[in-house]
Amino acid sequence: MSVPAPINSQLMQYMLGSLEVGLVVIDRSYTIRVWNQFMQSHSNIADSLAVGQNLFGLFSEINENWFKSKVAPVFKLNTPAYIIAEQRPYLFRFSASRPVTSASEYMHQNVSLFPLVDEHGVVTSICIVVYDVTDEVVSRQRFEEANVKLKRISRIDGLTGLNNRRFWEECCVNEYKRLGRSNTSSSLIMLDIDHFKQVNDTYGHPAGDEVIRYLAEIIRRTTRETDICGRFGGEEYVILLPDTDGEQAMLVAERLRRKAALRPAVYEGTEIDFTISVGVCEYQTRFNNHMEWVELTDKALYNAKRGGRNQVQRAA
Ligand SMILES: Nc1nc2c(ncn2[C@@H]2O[C@H](COP(=O)(O)OP(=O)(O)OP(=O)(O)O)[C@@H](O)[C@H]2O)c(=O)[nH]1
């Protein structure tokens, strides 16, 4: 059987040069011994300049203490180690290969550190392999951003920008559960535009939409950031006021009623007067579920309508 001819150094150079990964060999004193074509083209440092140089002297972005702690077990235990882009975006700060399309100014890298042993099995140097994972990282980031956006959109009412009913109810359920474990109290406010059908009939549906949007703005400006405001449907809104008792909630409700009554909406230069009816209900320990709380608030709102509208009623 014939013995294959040893790979000559020219062929080895060619192989190293054609690799789509960075390949660096460092010895125990962190002196660079091998510097392949990938590293040359991304660092703009020729191998004739890099080889023989100290790694930290050439690349100030590499934190010496951190990197030494990373390679210590590779030297000591003869086992590989890995640095992934999620932990640390890069080892060598290189520009992204496709800065225009990749939306990243630098190259994200996964890095493997392999031990190289001598004939006695002693680790004498380490091979650093640098993988360009910029495209994967950027597309994952884009995917995550799109998910966050979708999640936000799925919670928002398109006309008013308030929480939609489904998400608001989710928040209400969570608050209901929290109240079961705490000594604080919270309140609900439910409100509805009076005779809204007349607004639509008189000024048209787009004007009605503007009134709905405008009232949402009043609600946003009148409540706290921690209050959870939602559009329950049509011209009905709900507000969850955490850590707010019935009396305090009545003050907020009255403020809302007054603002709505005093500040007409404006649609295409026409002022549209409107009023609201409001129901208020503080959390009660006797409730069996969040719906009982919502229903009692709705009952208070119904009483406000029955009592003549443009008023606030509190649940008994
Ligand atoms: N412009 C507009 N109108 C809506 C929207 N959603 C519901 N409406 C209208 O709101 C009106 C609600 O009417 P009703 O439920 O009779 O109540 P109301 O006229 O406000 O009377 P009260 O609530 O009893 O004071 C209906 O005419 C619906 O068509 C919307 O998104 N935009």
Structure description:
It is elongated, with a radius of gyration of 34 Å. Helices cover 45% and strands 21% of the residues. The chain folds into two domains: 9-141, PAS domain (Beta-Lactamase), CATH 3.30.450; 156-314, Alpha-Beta Plaits (2-Layer Sandwich). The longest helix is centred in the middle third of the chain and has 22 residues, at 134-155. Strand 4 and strand 5 (123-132) form a beta hairpin. It has 316 residues and is an alpha+beta fold. Strands 2-1-5-4-3 form a five-stranded antiparallel beta sheet. Strands 7-8-6-11-12 form a five-stranded mixed beta sheet, sandwiched between helices. Strands 9-10 form a two-stranded antiparallel ribbon. The model has no long low-confidence stretch (mean pLDDT 93). It binds guanosine-5'-triphosphate (GTP). Guanosine-5'-triphosphate is lined by residues 159, 192-197, 200, 205, 208-209, 212, 234-235, 305, 309. Guanosine-5'-triphosphate binds at residues 159, 192-197, 200, 205, 208-209, 212, 234-235, 305, 309.
Considering the chains and any ligands shown, give keywords for the structure.
Nucleotide_cyclase; 316 residues; diguanylate cyclase; binds guanosine-5'-triphosphate; alpha+beta; Alpha-Beta Plaits; Beta-Lactamase; 12 strands; five-stranded mixed sheet; 2 domains; five-stranded antiparallel sheet
